[in-house]
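Appendix B. Raw example, untouched.
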Amino acid sequence: MKMKKLFFTAFLVLLVTACAKDDSYDPVADDTQAPSKPLNLAASEQTETSLKLSWDASTGNVGVTGYRIYQDGTALLGLITGTSATVQGLTPGTAYNFYVTAFDAKENESAPSNTLEAFTLEEPLSFLPLLSQMGVYTGNLSDLNPAQGVHLYEIHSTLFTDYAHKQRLIRLPEGQPMRYANSDLLPAFPDNTLISKTFFYNIDDQDPSMGKQIIETRIFLNVNGVWLVGNYIWNAAQTEANYRETGSTEAISYIDMNGQTQNVNYQIPSKQDCFTCHNNNAQTFPIGPKLRSLNFIPSYTNQNQLDYFQSLGLLQGVNPGSISVLPDWTDVANYTLEDRARAYMEVNCAHCHQPGGSVPAGFNIDFRLETLFPNTGIYENRGEIIARFESTLPTYRMPQLGRTVIHTEALQMLNDYIDSL
């Protein structure tokens, strides 16, 4: 009987001791219990060769002693005690996949955080001697086939340049889209954006398969928030284009849609000429790719161009329904005469004729589409507007740059508009 009591007492002691251990159980210290995973992994402070990663510790991460970063599945650095670290030694203009895990004192590892795709910046762009070195085209240069990552774009009403055809292209650094900038004007472009416009004539507009006469490719580069302009002039063999800052006049002959031979003394602008139009208050910028100019269905896709860019990840934050539309000045069926005339003057004249533009003070003309008609000066200067549009005198015609012949169809439309005032 005494032995049974002793055995029962010992059993109670063991039971109480075991219960006491269960009450003080620390799940982080147990080899079988992993810590909670980190949250909200994000990248910032990107450079060409480095970027900073930061993350949040889970609220359940009691007992975590450090974190480890994985790059494309490979562990980097050592154990990190904070919740941020800078990864270095990366390749410019490259995409990487990262995730982070947490560790406790017994080296239990958590599940991975969200996987983050992050990009290093490209090396700053610059104008190289040859167009083929700029990464705009692939294959035979004269075929004008955009290289990978280079995208076509079109604008609803176009600038007149002596009846030349134009191909417009844009290339953005990988993973860095254009963004809405609180207006229907230019979006915010990331650094290392390249915009190009190539000017050419068909040998015969009635049969474009006969080939092209490519004259020049103008390029804008956004470098550290500043737009740089450059021009590449195509050789006679159409095999290459060379960077050049001086202007020239080129004799061009082509057959138009009516079968008539047209001769044009095409003017290639100098670098300084580019600044005359692409400048406002001493800042250089593109003219064409305003959001309202892109807000339509272009010829190369059956989708609204803004929606199309967003589907490709080239644009963010834009609702096409909230953006106005620059009218197509040739679209008689869908736009009024006033809409068409104002759109034409916006594209062909407003870059100079607006506050801060290159036209000297005193002309009191503002051709921007958003300017209310009483403030445009169109009515007060209606006679001179027509006189300048129908002139070819270099010092008097309007625009003075970009054309040497009369834009006959537009002149008729503008005459009708002025007569209606």
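End of appendix B.
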